[in-house]
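Hi support team,

I'm opening this ticket because the web form for multi-chain structure prediction keeps timing out on my end. I have pasted the exact lines I submitted so you can reproduce it. The total is 372 residues across four entries, so I didn't expect it to be a heavy job. Is there a limit I'm missing, or should I split the entries? Thanks in advance, R.K.
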Amino acid sequence: MRFDDFVVLARIILGFLAISPMSGYDLIRAFRTSAAHFWSADKAQIYRTLARLVADGHARTEVVPGTGAPDRVVHHLEASGRDLLIEWLASDQKPQAERDAFTAQIFFAESLTTGELRGILDARRAAAVDARDALRAVERSLPNADPTTQRGAWLRRKTLEQGIRAHEAHIEWLDDIRTGLGDAAT
Amino acid sequence: MRFDDFVVLARIILGFLAISPMSGYDLIRAFRTSAAHFWSADKAQIYRTLARLVADGHARTEVVPGTGAPDRVVHHLEASGRDLLIEWLASDQKPQAERDAFTAQIFFAESLTTGELRGILDARRAAAVDARDALRAVERSLPNADPTTQRGAWLRRKTLEQGIRAHEAHIEWLDDIRTGLGDAAT
DNA sequence: ATCCGCATGTAAGTGGTTACATGATTCG
DNA sequence: CGAATCATGTAACCACTTACATGCGGAT
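Hello R.K., no limit was hit. The queue was backed up. Here is the completed structure from your submission:
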């Protein structure tokens, strides 16, 4: 909830609108699919932020009558919105505070039995493997992109790679701990 | 701000109190020093959570008159608090949503010039190197610990290692992008 | 003399999450 | 025939951050 999160969310929405005009529902899907590996957003939050972007003149709405479906409120990026986006893209991010509940568990895990500790390590490993494989599947579904001629697609692919690498480093670390614990029963 | 964050914060505080009784101020320092690589907490938040833990009977307070300094309100862990801690330590964490503003920047960086892109990559690399070195310094300041006889200390050390590895994987990834961009001027 | 650290809190503002609310279409 | 998806929002609750508030002691 830090204040900046609100700004980042607005900028990400502007980023999506820069790629293509979208309805609130389109954005909800975009967050669930394309952006899940680096940001999450609730739908209430997305609608609220969209409304503010329109109120501030950074986007404008166009109502597209639904053909046998509800009407869609499509949002278009305005010039001031694009300016805001570019300014943010080129800006330095102040370092984000870490928030990792699992690491916290390990930090205080002294009070656990070896069996319990192995339990949470194994569960975490399985989750990390799943998450890595899910990102790999997305990566494979995307066409290869050339860094000079298709920079946008290439960069988006790179962000998936970052997620995959992070998960792999995490898995190796988990295995290290597992090894360090040894074979003792307790 | 997700609801769980509040629970995690309470458990981390219980974890610290399990190691040793502490005042609110002690906890503020503990978060700044020992826990910065996996959790952050504001002091208002810490005092509020401490008050609730006491109200719920999971901790009790002891006022220690200050010797030439303000009184300290030292918090001691109660049995029910220890139960809560252990239960949480052994529980599976539901996967946390990613929130990384820098990755978001890269994802939408298509609109930037190569120069601007290099700028944010370099800034980020410098920040990551600093963060890694800071963790390494902390790691070096800690005595080595044996996984079987000093499990608590060993695990706490491992969490630092996790942070260091994550930063290193991140730096490699940044360098990869830098290389992929090539030498072109624009 | 001033700033920083110790030490404890409270109040106000802001935003995130959850649940509520509605209604049509499509798929099994 | 029920469940899921499309599609849009609102209201209530809750917690995090920022700023406010106070006061002593030691260092520069």
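A quick check on our side: Chain B touches chain A through 74 residues (CB under 8 Å). Let us know if the file doesn't open in your viewer.
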